[in-house]
Specification:
The complex is a heterodimer of chains A (335) and B (328).
Chain A (H helix, E strand, L loop, with lengths): L1 H7 E16 L3 E17 L3 E5 L6 H8 L7 E6 L2 E2 L5 H10 E4 L3 H4 L6 H11 L5 H14 L5 H4 L9 H13 L5 E5 L7 H18 L2 E6 L11 E6 L2 E7 H6 L4 H9 L51 E4 L2 E3 L11
Parallel strand pairs in A: 3-8, 3-9, 6-7, 7-8
Antiparallel strand pairs in A: 1-2, 1-4, 4-5, 9-10, 10-12, 11-12
Helix pairs in contact in A: 6-8, 8-9
Chain B lengths: L6 E14 L2 E14 L3 E5 L6 H9 L6 E10 L2 E2 L5 H9 L3 E4 L13 H13 L3 H15 L15 H13 L5 E5 L7 H18 L2 E6 L2 H4 L5 E6 L2 E7 H6 L4 H8 L54 E2 L5 H7 L1
Parallel strand pairs in B: 3-8, 3-9, 6-7, 7-8
Antiparallel strand pairs in B: 1-2, 1-4, 4-5, 9-10, 10-11
Helix pairs in contact in B: 3-4, 3-5, 4-5
The chains are: A alpha/beta (335), B alpha/beta (328).
The complex binds adenosine-5'-triphosphate, adenosine-5'-diphosphate (ADP), iron/sulfur cluster (2 copies) and magnesium ion (2 copies).
The site of one magnesium ion has 4 residues of chain B, from helix 1.
InterPro entries (chain B): AAA+_ATPase, ABC_transporter-like_ATP-bd, ABC_transporter-like_CS, Oligopep_ABC_C, P-loop_NTPase, Sigma_54_int_dom_ATP-bd_1
GO molecular function (chain B): ATP binding; ATP hydrolysis activity
Keywords (chain B): ATP-binding, Nucleotide-binding, Transport
């Protein structure tokens, strides 16, 4: 049983830190931006998870660290039992092929001077698919998979001739070309119109299910996760503060930060205009010098003086399978 | 539409066409609506439907490649379309109507302190003294929730949320009757968005300001709207009270749009609208939504006029023709 479970884990982040040096005049180090600052999680094979958090909390940095585009400052990522930092040459290429990346900005993701055929051929060539017909066949396959069914019309087009939704489908097609076992999608729809968003999210979710892919879906919008992920990780200031299956997290959020996020949004109703929302004051802290103790304490309406501003809260498990890093769950602090 | 004593702005058949290499782009194509005092009208619509062009047409902030700019815009009992440019700037732009442009928070002058930038319309267009202007600016900063310590800061020293409040202050500082906001929160986080919407709600309540809020996001629209106008391919296809629009949308496009809104606690997944909006250069004759409309029928090859199934509602769809006939 134990071993079987181990086998099911595709990716694991252990105490992951990715810091960026902040320099003045190009050389004087004046500090570090702790974009990812102590993150642990495991993703099972075939599981879809969402990372949710405000802009600047480290989501994209985490994504790029998982992709091996940033070297972690400390901690490590294991993929399929292998530590990422130890992969070299061929093995590293192999890894890059097994993780598809849909980056945040579809408009910047596609090289403007390549038509769709060329930009989809490139990764195949790089990964050694030498036969032209094999490439063409593979390209047609993925384009159909992302529902760009007018393949002959799409192939000769340049990115600027495509709508935002079509561009994003091409980006997804490119991520699927090399038959990855995992997909990292960084805010795949935030730049798109509301009317296309659902269509793209459905597409991603269906592909994920059909291919049993592991999907890490990054978003700043809690209202879009319900149908597109199995589990949610809520991030704040470089850390994960709460994690739980989607329904549990949305229906009974445990961490005060998650509670604020959910209080700030409401299902569409004309009455929304009548009442002001409860919004915690202030803004997320500087990652150069994050506050001591719980990073949310300067804004937290429930902060416990003498505790929250001193000690970092560990994860508690207030309900089975539902984790929250907050002192309120500690027996010692329950009133 | 019936004009009541409360009507502040009455727009009829407003049209703004651009000249482009491929032909005429009908970005705003015969738009009519009215805005009451202390009312918030939300203009919803997908990208390219003409929302920003509508805002620019109302404020006469036009690019050069104009093919056609026409219609009537009554502000009180003055048709501002008839004013010369100089009179328009004096009487309307820096006075009774203000616009926060899309992405304005990224267009602040990087080398001028924000307090001075906000004071500019008062200093330049009203000739106020520096002290008098700065006093008003400080007051406006307080209203939008920016500490007066920030008056002396430069834009890069402020977060996105704070810069958005600063551009809002810039629009409010002249105490206009109508404030037009083009996507004021789209680039911001959920919590920042919510606090900016709180500021707008408070200003609407306390100052009696009227708003035209432009957004593509239905959830955001519900945070301020008294009424909703939905744009599609340069035209308003439905205009209704917010309650009706959100709960009983009338136009097939409105219905599909409302179905596509994700809901936090809803078990079914949201729907979506297959297809894409038409090109504004040579849009289809007949109903512009016909390609994507599940209710399309023979009549839809003719352009539907705006029908009023009841006096608070206008719907540009043939399905509502009978209702009108029955109603009257
Ligand atoms: N100066 C211009 N010259 C030519 N065409 C223009 C010009 N400005 C806008 N357009 C076109 O007019 C149409 C409407 O554009 P507009 O910016 O008003 O849309 P929008 O609804 O504000 O979109 P978004 O949600 O992306 O801001 C688009 O097809 C656009 O490409
Ligand atoms: N290459 C980089 N160099 C320096 N700082 C960076 C770099 N990439 C991101 N950061 C900083 O790290 C923090 C987290 O950024 P990011 O991971 O992009 O967050 P998110 O995707 O959640 O918005 C921010 O303060 C950002 O400015
Ligand atoms: S640990 Fe304290 S400050 Fe942090 S979220 Fe919990 S109650 Fe608030
Ligand atoms: S007029 Fe016809 S095509 Fe247009 S929205 Fe109504 S039913 Fe659909
Ligand atoms: Mg990001
Ligand atoms: Mg716009």
């Amino acid at each position: 049983m134990e071993a079987e479970q181990q086998n099911d884990i595709l990716l694991k982040a252990n105490n992951l830190h990715t810091w960026f040096d902040l320099r003045q005049w190009g050389f004087l180090r004046i500090g570090s931006v702790r974009a990812v600052d102590g993150v642990d999680f495991e993703l099972a094979r075939g599981e879809a998870v969402a990372f949710v958090g405000e802009s600047g909390c480290g989501k994209s940095t985490l994504a790029r660290t998982l992709l091996g585009l940033h070297r972690p400052t400390s901690g490590d990522v294991t993929f399929d039992g292998q530590e990422l930092s130890t992969l070299k040459g061929e093995a590293r290429q192999q890894y890059l092929a097994s993780v598809g990346y849909v980056q945040q900005d579809p408009f910047g993701a596609l090289p403007p001077f390549m038509d769709v055929r060329r930009l989809l051929s490139e990764p195949l060539i790089i990964h050694g698919v030498k036969d032209r017909d094999t490439r063409e066949k593979r390209i047609r396959q993925v384009l159909e998979e992302v529902r760009l069914t007018q393949v002959d019309e799409i192939l000769p087009k340049f990115p600027h001739m495509l709508s935002g939704g079509q561009q994003q489908r091409v980006v997804i097609a490119r991520a699927l070309l090399l038959e990855p076992s995992m997909l990292i999608a960084d805010e795949p729809v935030s730049m798109l119109d509301a009317s296309v968003r659902v269509e793209i999210l459905n597409l991603l979710r269906n592909i994920q299910k059909q291919r049993s892919l592991t999907l890490a879906f990054i978003t700043h919008d809690l209202s879009t996760v319900r149908h597109y992920a199995d589990r949610i990780f809520v991030m704040y200031a470089g850390r994960i503060v709460e994690q739980a299956p989607v329904e549990k997290l949305l229906d009974s959020p445990q961490h005060p930060y998650t509670q604020s996020l959910l209080a700030a949004i409401a299902d569409v109703d004309a009455d929304n205009a009548l009442e002001e929302r409860d919004v915690p004051s202030g803004e997320p802290p500087s990652l150069l010098k994050p506050p001591q103790g719980c990073r949310f304490h300067p804004r937290c309406p429930k902060a416990i003086a003498g505790t929250c501003d001193v000690k970092d809260p560990p994860f508690f498990e207030p309900q089975t399978g539902h984790f929250s890093a907050c002192w309120l769950h500690d027996e010692a602090h329950r009133g | 539409m019936t004009q009541s004593a409360d009507t502040l702005l009455q727009v009829s058949d407003l049209t703004l066409h651009y000249r482009t290499r491929r032909g005429t782009a009908r970005a705003v194509d015969g738009v009519s609506f009215d805005l009451r005092r202390n009312e918030a009208l939300v203009v919803l619509g997908e990208s390219g439907s003409g929302k920003s062009s509508l805002a620019k047409a109302l404020m006469r902030l036009l690019p050069r490649n104009i093919e056609r700019f026409s219609g009537q815009v009554m502000l009180g009992d003055m048709d501002i379309m008839q004013l010369g440019d100089e009179a328009f700037r004096k009487q309307v732009q820096w006075n009774r109507m203000a616009l926060v442009m899309q992405a304005a928070m990224n267009a602040l002058n990087p080398v001028v302190r924000v307090g001075e930038q906000v004071a500019e319309p008062l200093r330049v267009h009203r000739g106020w003294s520096k002290d008098r202007a700065m006093e008003r600016v400080a007051e406006t900063f307080r209203k939008v929730g920016v500490s007066t310590d920030f008056l002396q800061r430069y834009p890069f020293e402020l977060s996105g949320g704070m810069r958005q409040r600063v551009v809002l202050a810039m629009a409010l500082v002249t105490e206009p009757d109508v404030v037009i906001l083009d996507e004021p929160t789209s680039a911001l986080d959920v919590l920042t968005q919510a606090s900016i919407m709180n500021v707008l709600k408070r200003i609407k309540r306390e100052e009696g300001t009227s708003f035209i809020l432009i957004t593509h996001d239905v959830a955001t629209s519900s945070e301020l709207a008294d009424r909703v106008a939905l744009m599609y391919a340069g035209q308003i296809v439905e205009i209704s009270d917010a309650r009706d629009f959100f709960h009983y949308p009338a136009h097939p496009y409105s219905q599909m749009l409302m179905d596509s809104v994700p809901r936090l606690h809803q078990a079914e997944a949201p729907g979506y609208i297959p297809g894409e909006p038409p090109d504004l250069i040579d849009p289809p004759t007949g109903c512009r939504f016909a390609d994507r409309c599940p209710s399309r029928f023979s009549k839809c090859s003719q352009d539907p006029p705006a029908f009023s199934p009841d006096e608070r509602r206008r719907v540009r769809c043939w399905l509502h023709e009978d209702e009108v006939a029955r109603g009257s």
